[in-house]
Amino acid sequence: MINDTLLTAVEDELRRGPWRLRFADEVEARFEEDTQHQRSRSMVVAGLISAIIYCLFLINDHSFRPDTFTTALTLRVGVMLPFGLPILWWVYRGVSPAQRETLMASTVIVATVISCLIFAESTVPYSYLDVFSFGLILLVGNIVYSLRFNYACVSSAICIFIILLFVLSYDPMPPEAKRLAIFTIIAQALFTLVANYRFEQSERTSYLHVLKEKIRAGYYLKDNQELSRMSVTDPLTNLANRRQFDTVFPVRWQEATDKGLCLGLVVIDIDHFKAYNDYYGHPQGDECLRQVATAMQANSRDADLVVRFGGEEFVVLIANASPEAAKPAAERIRHNVEALEIPNHGVSAQSVVTVSVGVAVLYPKVSLAPAELLSQADEALYEAKRQGRNRVWVASAIDSSSGDSAIDGLSVSA
Ligand SMILES: Nc1nc2c(ncn2[C@@H]2O[C@H](COP(=O)(O)OP(=O)(O)OP(=O)(O)O)[C@@H](O)[C@H]2O)c(=O)[nH]1
Fold first, then answer.
1. 200 and 73 within one domain
2. Are the CB atoms for 193 and 138 separated by under 8 Å?
3. pLDDT digits (tens, 9 = 90+) for 55-72
4. Of 5, 36, 111, 336, which shows the fewest CB atoms inside 10 Å?
5. ipTM confidence score
6. Is residue 406 within a helix (H) or strand (E), and if so which, with residue range?
7. Domain match, 181 and 260 both
8. For ligand 1, mutation pick of 274, 287, 344, 391 (most atoms within 8 Å of CB)
């Protein structure tokens, strides 16, 4: 259900076109949740690289304008690093998206202020040429950090304003150079903002497509799991169906053979069910099958496989079943069905729905086929019916090595 709403929201966003840089709240929250870890880390890496390069500009300060080297050293290493590094640590540890963008944008603005202070302090000829390198700071914020577009716009505007203040008030710089510098800085800001916008746009569009495919893949997986479940389940009773039995039985047989364990099979058939159907009708017959199935399931262990074998016939496959344990288990099932007291007036006014049960238990051997156990249990069931129904008949004392399936039965009547 949650995914349905999300899928609709994602499809709405894709329909709306890629020009918007903010999704509807639900999708935006998901976008941030999915991307913020990676984004914070890549911003921190970008911040560290930028900090190193920013400090390397001291080489330029030293050779180009030695009169302000001490100031440059103090500001770049003594102010910029103590300001920037804790911010990077903070972002690395995880902050809200707005804090992350604001903090990273603040490093861009502070770097601009520091660069302007160093520039303004120097009086050496051509020091003003340094202004042309300020565009690199914009490049860091808008491209290297890739600040979200609105933060990039605001920080670029603030940086340009600061640069304007310093450039316009710096007397040694010729007016033509000021004009060119300001024009260049503004153009760099615009170019990098265009690139920033396109980065964010394509990041968001790709994210929507990936998210849509992920949600759909989730549906396919769920559908497949549901189909697999349905293919091995009886729709009327929700018990395992014959197909599941055919898959599980040989596996349990092999396990029992390998471990030398006993395997038990209980075959259950509702008595006079035709009469029930004829009297109450087919839908009521279905309801009766459901109740009997529930009673059988409730009286079996989790490890046992309870199967609707077909029609009104059921099977319980009992792993690691000793002959002594299988008989009471079968008797419990018979008793509990009878205890449901589902009337069967199709037989007589006093009759209730009962079951006949055939039980077979043996130690599987390589020389035996699994069908052997099934046929012994079937024969026991036939005997239970023949003996008058509503009883358990155990096919016992079977010499599995000879394959002798003679029934040395024991009847347990109600
Ligand atoms: N309602 C309903 N009836 C079913 C379903 N599958 C099989 N049956 C009915 O089960 C009845 C089985 O009848 P029989 O095989 O003659 O057996 P019986 O009447 O139970 O007699 P005994 O087994 O000898 O006690 C038939 O009437 C089938 O139509 C089902 O899915 N729903």
1. yes
2. no
3. 999 999 999 889 999 999
4. 5
5. 0.96
6. none
7. no
8. 274
